[in-house]
Structure formats: structure tokens, C-alpha cells
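Data's thin. Show one?
=====
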Amino acid sequence: MITMKTKKKRNIIILIILALIIAIGSTVGIVLGVVLNKKGHGGNTGGDDSDDNGGNTTPVYTQLEFDKKSHYKVQQSMNTLGTINRRLPSISNEGLCTRYPVYGTELKDLTDEERTNLYTESALLLAKNNDSNGENGTYNSMDKDGNLYLDGVATGKRLYKHTASTNMYFGEVSDTEKAVIEKITINAKEYRNYITGLYAPAGEVIKIEISQEDLDKVGGLSILIGSASPRNFYTTIKTNREIKRMPTIVNRMEVNDITTYVGNYLGGPIYIYPNKINVEFNVVISGAVKYPVYIQGYTTREQLKEMEKLSAPYYDFELWDVGVRHSGAKIYGNFDFDNLYRVGEYWEKVIRTSQRVPPGSSAKIGIGFIYDVYVSAGAACAWVGRNWVEGPSAALAPALDYNGITTAGIWGTMHELNHHYQNYGAGQDGEVTNNATTLLSYCSYTNISANRGENDNALGTDWKRYTDASRSLRETISNMAVNKDADKVQPQYTLNIYADIIHSFGVDTYIKATRYNAGKHGVDYWYEALCETTGYDMTYYFETMLNHTVSATLKEKYNNGTRPIYVPIASIYQTGRSYISNGKEYYTTTMRPYRLYKSHEYTLDLNSKIIVPTGFTFNIKEVTSPQNGTLTPLSDNKYKLITTNDTYSGEIKVKIELTDGTITTPDVTLIFNFEYIDELPTVTKYTYSNRIYETPQDAISSNFAGYEKVETVDYNGQNFNRTANKQIIVINSKIYIPQDGTYIFCLRAGRGNHSLYVSQNGTYYKDVINYSGAKNTFTTNDDQCVTYTLKKGDYIWLKQITVADRNASDAYTEMGWAVNGASCVKIPMQYTLGVNATYGTTPYESEALYPTSYDNYQKTIYHNDYSQFSLVDITHGYWDDTTKPENMLDGNQDTFYHSNQNNFVSADNPCDITLNLSDVKKYNQLTIINRKVGTVHMPITFKLYGGTTLDNMVLIKEYTNVSYSGLTLSVDFDTTLLQYVKISITDTNTHRYVSIADIQFNYKIVGTEIPCDDITYYNFHINTTLTGTFGHIISGNGYLTYSYTGHGLLLNTRQDSACTIKVDIDGVEKEYHLAKTNTKEFIYLPTITYGQHNLKITVVSGTLDVDSLIIIK
């Protein structure tokens, strides 16, 4: 409840009291001191609330500094109310099997009988429910002691810890881990399940409590225990597949009472699924333990640090608001807060970009990744239509490694994500268009293209190569001679036809093309979409370069000489290019600056570095100078570039004319930019005509003599895997040590003889690891590891040497480390340097192409007061005494007005209804509600007039054939000051009479919701104990400021206690009292005019709990 009061009377009283006190004080010598600091609830980490101010009467205000700001909605909170002791269960099984799987270890040589028994026993552990996996369950409820019941009848069985729960998710819940009593508040916005941050230990009973009011609101809950997707999907291992866990490991139970008990024989994370959305509810869960959960915008640095200590073996990462969730074993989780924040930013940008492409899954729900030891099909599997991806357990780690993602990429994970966003293109093969959607994010949000080099090995032969526009175009050109049926070529060779377009016209134009014929596939559809969205004639590219056939009808429309002809051009040095659309020049950027060493001299031969289609030649018409460095023309399209110690060269514009003698196309400006860097790691490859050496030691002792060819290239990767028989590779790198501790360096390699040489000073190297064959994983086994105790800031120099096996075509080598007892993982890219480089790089940053914004907030501030509402006039009569026009004004939808018999409404016979809304207010919406019984005669064509007096009404808006839903019609109009209105009805849905039960005039605002973190606060602190729109609220007793442009504001609060505030907008003050509500309430803060305004809110008494601001458009 929010009330406003005037200050005039109170001010007079205060002045009188102060005068009396001063008079008394003058007589008896009282010294007056005023202490203005105020106490607030929840602890104030934003400033000093001490009453001891050293005699200074001036309040001390400290600005709230944010660690990381939250800009994404997280309408959920989790608060621990206390801890309880656990009742540890016994370990048992159903006795149908002689052996059971241990999670992650294959149960080998299973007989048919053993396999059948295992599946039978797995089903016995499941609750019966409507899910396909639980349709044969043996119980559907349990009591507080774990006794099981089926439809209320005791089964004689009891929950226990199953033998197969050993090492579940590669870990065990410690017997000493305390169970908690956790209150969870969720404002459900999607039809999905919600993270609780709680883990049910195997065989332990978990208590679920919900109030009857909340239970009625949500219509019941489902509780899922185990690795379930957000849409409640989970896998049962196919009967012909290897067994590395029990066939089904998720248990689902229903909550239809205020107290319910649930559990899982195998244990697992607990998720809550409400049957209804757009409701807020509270659940108290008792008996579970906490497990690590990172929710972007909710989880704090301090919370994450404590989570790392938890023994529960599961891990969840989530973007709460139609985002992504990554779920899997804790051993592959990540606990670097700064890294995770960047990872969250990355996935937020990616999902918002992909969601703009025509989807195959619901765009109203995010995508959930489950990383498990079982994958239903292939190495990973996307369930299109279910918003779900399956991946192998270890794939969780790279999905949470920001530097790895932005430097080397995670194409497999992105590939599966974008199977959900692939519904477009020239052919039916989603294996191509999903990769094209991935390329949109690779070009926009990663630094991968910076790794391109003179040698194609720099980006390898995998999908990363398409981040290089010149590489893609070269492939398109090379395919021209053989690609007679483009749809039949292997998918990876057709990604270039989408990459060419992305690099030529940019991400946004490409996305517009995907949406133009959304859901339609075929050459004509894609040709038409590109012609329409780019403004170009795409005929040459489609028919000559891609060997497609475009229909004559479409060519007549687009290939008629009125459009510029699209002819692709690209350079390895480019970051972007220009294009002409509808006579206007646009620029786009899709690549990172090309890397060159600092303070070096280079010759740029553009003859070989500018790629044009066969038959075309180019003429360089103009080249601009770099901001940093010097560029000097030599001859024949060659230039000398001298780099500096700056970071970038700055843009260099290269204007180019293309010609083939017949086609005229606009000049293109390629944008070059160079990044000046320290040296990178290098890989040297020795190639021999005959096999000379068998071991690295043999080669080193002879200084690699006898080679036929040697080449050294920069190496900005991690897994080098292109070494064949008669080849030897040497990788030279330098590793930065980011923290004190024990480092176990691990060499993962295969298909050859391998050695690792290590130096601690860059001069003297020691041979520390040698083996042959393959060691495919990172481990801490002695024969592939070496251990050092190091200090932060130290360096380690490495030489990895592999001599490929005689029959090998793809020997590989990769370095990993285990730091201070953690799992062994590949060494992060940011710590891998050139042998002469120094550490000091900052993480790659990128701007969101489609920033997350909440700019369609809608709320009705007020509507007409029926008690003050009056009818001025109506031009049609009424049917009988039960259908008088006054019924429209009584606020009772069971009564209604009906026009008189045989008096049909028309343009020549309008039904004019004139109303007095009692006083002058802003309105912008008219709502008409019709009769509940009988034939509905809804007005659909009418004119709305209005004004502040009866005599000055003017036409506000005219409506024709307006659609309506059910019994309700709502139309909007420009915000207008009104007291008198006239609705002139000329037609209804029946074209006969008029019937209306209620008429409402409303003032509805549309605005942009601003996160609470974007406001400036003094003597406030972050409060995660209350559920906020953006992951938390901001509480305090000082003041806040905010400047905005708009018509006014809504201040959303969630008061845990009453308070009084003074609101100052542009110097105009009002005071408000806010009552304790524990729910979100708003204060309407209007301004007279649209424009720039300044807000200041000062807490007069109590504590203000700020949720968000809404700027009224």
C-alpha cells in the first residue's frame, strides 16, 4: 500500500516545536545536536550507518560500488532458514543384478539377461507419473520415513541409497555435509523447471512445503531429482548402448498437497516445475544439501567462493530469462567469478542473436544443455522442439571457459545450440544453416578470426576457418568448377555460401534474410530473401558461382538492371567492407584485426591477398593511411607497412574497382585493420622424404637434419593434430603462472612418439616426459606428467615434440595442467604465450549486436472510477428496462446495455454514447466488455471524440473493423487529457444492434524497465534476501539519483518494512509513505512534459527496498 501526504501542516507543527525547544534551550543552556544518519535492515555494505559522527551534524553518505552489475532478469531467490541433521540411509539394491554400473565406467560384457534385469530394476526405482519414463513406476508418493505408496496404498517398500549411486556424477555427498531448510521464491515466467540450488543425497527423504494459496496459484508442482532438462526431458539409455550408469537416473514426483515428501534412490539436483506461469510462489525444502549454482545476475562472488567447498557433485550455470542452462558434474564446473560473468555475457549475446533466426524450438523458452556420460546419438545431440541439448560430461568445462570460447571456440556446443535456430536457407540440410547461425556469433563475439594467418593451418580445416572471409571465398571459387549440384556437396563445403553473405553484408542483414522467407527452404526462397534484404541482384553469385538455377519469374523481378550485381570480394587483412543498398553506402564488420608483430616491417602483397571470382580483375583506386604505423606503396599493388608499439593500426580503407568486361558492380571499400602484438607460440614442422628419426631424442641429437622442407608458423591453438608419417613437429611456448601453488603439467598426445622439454629460465631445457602411442585424456599419472611448485608471475617454457607414427596421418599433442589439486584441464589460452612475450593481455571484449533490453513494460496506472462515471447522452434507445444504458456504468459485468429493437446501427444511424469521466485526467486506452449471455453485438467500427469540456471535444481516433478477444475489445490512442468522451458507433460484428456490459477508460503506460543496478545510490546495499526483478533488490536509508528522458517514471519497490521517502523530480518534491508489502508495488511519478528529467529520492525514515525503475515512453 502506498499513500501520499502533504507536508504543509506538519511543517507548521515542527516549526512551533522547534521554536519552543530553542527558547527553553536558551534559558537552561541545553546544547542541541541533530543526528541524521539512519539505521536500516539487512546490513548496509554501501556506507557507514554509525550514529557516531564525531559531533558533525552533516550526514555521511557513501556511494554504492557494484562488483558486477546485473542487467538480466532473475525473478527468483533462495534463502537458507536453517540447517538440520541428515538421516543417512543404508546402501542396498533390488537384488535383480549381480553387478551395477558405477557412473562414468562402462559395465562391460553384459549378457542379455543382465541387461534385461538392469532395466527392470531401474524402472522399480522410479515414481509413477505422466512422463514416458515414469509410466511404469511402482509408487507415486512417500511419507517422512521414506515408505512408498501407490495411489495411497502402501507398497511395503522404502527409499534407500542404491548401490549404483556410488560416484554419481563423479562424486559423493559427504556424510558430514549439513542439510538445509531453504525458502525458494520463484516468479515463474516460462514453462520450464527452476533451479533450487539443492541436491537430494541418494536415498534421503526431502520435504516440500507450499502454502495452500500458492499451491492453488500454480496448480501443482512437479519435482524432478536428477539431471533433467529445463523442459523436464531426460534420457533412458537405449537397450543396445553401452551402460555407464543406471538406465534412468531422474525421478519425477508430483506435489498436490501443502506437504509432500520426495527422493531419488540415486540422488541428484532438485528442480521445481510449476503447472502455471506468470505467478509468484514460495516453496520451503528441507533435508537436501546445497550444490554449486551460478545464476548470472544473482550469484555473488562470495556465494560462489563458498559453493566451491560443497561436496554435492553437481553444477548448474544459468541465464535465467529465456537464456541457456549448462548442467553437469561439478568436477567440470567453473568457480572463477570474473570468468563466469564474462561467460554469462557471452551466452547472453549468443542466445539473443540466435533467437532472431527462425527457430525450430520455442523461442519463448531458453535452451538447456545436459552434460552426461550418456548421449542419445553421436557425440552430442540436439532435441529440436524440446529446447534441449545432450553433450558428453567433459564438454561442460569448455562451455564455461570464456578465454577458450573467444580464442579457440566451442563449435560442437554451438553447433548443437543452433540446431534449434536453423529454419531457413537454400537447402534442407540443417547441418549447414545451424553452422551458419553459429558463424554469426563467432564473427561477432569471439576473437577467433584474429588467429588467421598466411598459412591456412592457422585456422585449421575445421569450421573456424569460415571466420576468415578470404578463406571462405577461396573455397567458393574452388568449388565453382565441381559444384554442379550444390545441395549434394558435403555440408562443410557449403557453409561458405552463407559465410560469403555474412562477410559481405554483415550479421544484421543476414538475419533479416533468414527471416524473410522464414521456415521455407530452397534456392528460390533464399535467392529472393537475399535480393530483398541486401538490395543486390544475386543472380551471378547463385547461377555462375554456385551453379544453382533460379526461376525465371524471380530473375525477371531482380535481374533486370535496376539493382547492383553482387560479386564477392575478400581479403585476409579485412575486418569489414562496404556495400550499396538502395543507393546508400553501408559498412559492416565481421572479422578481428589481422595480427602482426610490433615494431616490424612487412610487405603486403595485395595481388595474392585480395580474392575475386574467376574471370574478374581488380583495380585499387584509393588507400588511406593507418593511424599508427606507416604504409608506403611499392609497386604493382604491393605496400610496405611498418608497425609500431601501439595496439592497433587503425582503419585503412582500400577502395577497389571490380571488372570482368561484362558485369558492372559498384566499387567496394575493404576495411583493413592490424593488431600489433608480442610474439605468439610457434610450431615448426619438419617434413622428410624418407623416415629418418623414430624418437624426439634422435631428431634433437642430429638437429633435425635431413629434412626436405621446414616451416614455422604462429600457433594460437592448443591441440595440434595435423602431423603425418615422415613429419616431426616442435611447439615452442611460454606459460604464465597466475597464482602460487603446485602445478602438474600433463602431456596429452597420440599416434606418435612424444616428448616434453621444460625450462624455468628460457635457456636450459630438461627432457621430462617421454612416451609412445596414445594417452587420450588429461590425467595426473606420473608417466605423462611433471610437477612444479611455482609462484604467481613465474614463467615456464615448453617444447612439445612429436614424431608421427609410420602409419599416422594425424598425430596430435596438447598441454594441460592441474593447479593446486584441481582436475587436469587444458592450459587456458590466455596463459599460453610466445617464448619472448610477456603476460599482460586483457580478456577479449565485444559489444552485443542485440543488447538485452526490457522496453515493452506495460501497466495500467488507473482506469475510470465507476462511482464518478456518468452518462451525458445516448442517441439510441434500449431494448427493455433490464438493458438500460446506465448498466454500462455500474461496474457489474452481469448487467448490460442493449440498443432498442429494429434500430440498426449504421454510418447513417450511429449510436453516439457521450460520457463524463468526472475530472480531467490522462487516458490512452478504451476497453469495451460485452454481455455474458445472449448474442454479442460488439462495436467494431467507431469514432472516438474527447476533450476537457463538453464543448471542445475533437476526433481522437477512428477505428474500422477492430478485432476483439472473447468478450473484450481494447483499443489504444495517443495519451490525451480527457473529461468528456463520445463513442460514435457505426457498425458491430452483427451489423445490427449494440450491446455493452462495461466501458472503461484507462491510462496505460508503456516503458523501459531499468535494472536497479543502473541507479546511483548513497548509503544503500545489495539485498539478495528478497526476490527482485533483476536478481536482487537494493536496500538502504540514504538517497538515490537517476537522470532520464521520458514522460515520467514508475518506481518499483518490494518493501520488507514500512518507510517514508521524499521524491524530487526537477526540484518539485512530494512525500510518500510505503507500507510493508513483501510483494512488488509501484509508485507513479509523472512529469508534465516529455524530456530530460532528474530524479532524487531521499529516505526520510525506515528502509527503502528498490526493485527497478520504469521510464515511461
Remarks:
- The mean pLDDT is 90.
- The first strand starts at residue 2 and ends at 5.
- The two ends are 25 Å apart (CA to CA).
